[in-house]
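#struct-help
A.M.: can someone run this one for me? Single chain, 398 residues.
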Amino acid sequence: MNSKRKVLISGASIAGPTLGFWLAKYGFEVTIVERSRSLRLGGQNLDVRGAGRAIVRMMGIEKEILAANTGEIGLQFVNRNNEVEAEFPAEGANSFTSEAEILRGDLVNILHEHTKNDVKYVFGKSITSIHQKPDKIEVTLNDKESELFDLLIAADGVRSTTRTLIFGDEPELKFAGLYNAWFTIPRMERDTQWARWYTAPGSRVMLLRPDNHGTIRASFSFLSDDKKYPNQSDREQKKVLKDKLLGAGWEEDRLMKEIDDNNEVYFDGISQVKAPRWFDGRAGMIGDAAYCPTPLTGMGTTLAMVGAYLLAGELSRRDRHEDAFAAYEKRMRPFVEKVQKLPPGVPWLAHPKSKLGVSIVNTVAALLASRPVRMVGQLFGNKEKDVTKDEIELPVFD
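D.P.: on it. Structure tokens below:
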């Protein structure tokens, strides 16, 4: 019966292709629709950890992910003169750099390569309306073409338009009071294989990270309660970024120039998605569209892959989608709720307002990076490469 079921997935980033991989393996007919005209291969660093690492191992792509490592050797906290205040090597027990550190675009490409022969990809189109029927769901795309599917799953990110078609305004985007801009910039002689973190007064942070493509992935974040920025034009957003950067020091001039010249500056507020339900009839959502935890947790990729694996598995076990959806949510929601609990003081502690606050951040970082603390971490830490599961059961689905 599974071979007859047609599933449409919206979004060709990480959650969508992972879901497509497993559904195709279980005999479903899968189509992935993506509004971009091709794979979106940009983006910043991701890391695949814990249960996510176990899943990519089952998918047979773990070695490819490790081979596509960004080459980052660790994280340095620097001051405005580019002097190192604290250093966290990648191999350390308290490292900020994952063994499976990979660029978002590289992971997207790996997932596409392993699904393109079994999953139908439709690029340059998006869903404009849905109509639920007793035994099918009718989906209309922006080219006015309609098609019937058994199920529709939104996996198109935190700003999912498909989610709105299914649930309206029911899901809440819980703003964390933090904005972030990401962009790729040319590499310079002073750049190394270390990621460099700079904290500036005024609740601002710059982060420059090396990649395996000969460029640097830059990000700039700042605290603000103003919720209007995401709705502004690109020109207005760039002005906001430059205003916020002004006087920050360190690589301020470099990032200012790049904001002016770069056509691919991604700027958004950092928000969690809180949804009382993930399914309605024959439609549902996974990944950031359903339960974005924010990049602050470092668990977005893992949640996306775990959710995709578990949903496909539950659908493969049951003929009734209602039963599969219920079983999936029972497994997944406690894990999501745990991941979404941000530590106290996040993100405010890492974005101090005053020069004294900046000094405290760098002093604490230096203490954590000190030899005695590192030795304790090595005694009690668990190397990430040995972790296969974290606080959620991954059943083997037949």
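A.M.: thanks! The longest strand covers residues 172-186.
D.P.: also worth noting: The two ends are 14 Å apart (CA to CA).
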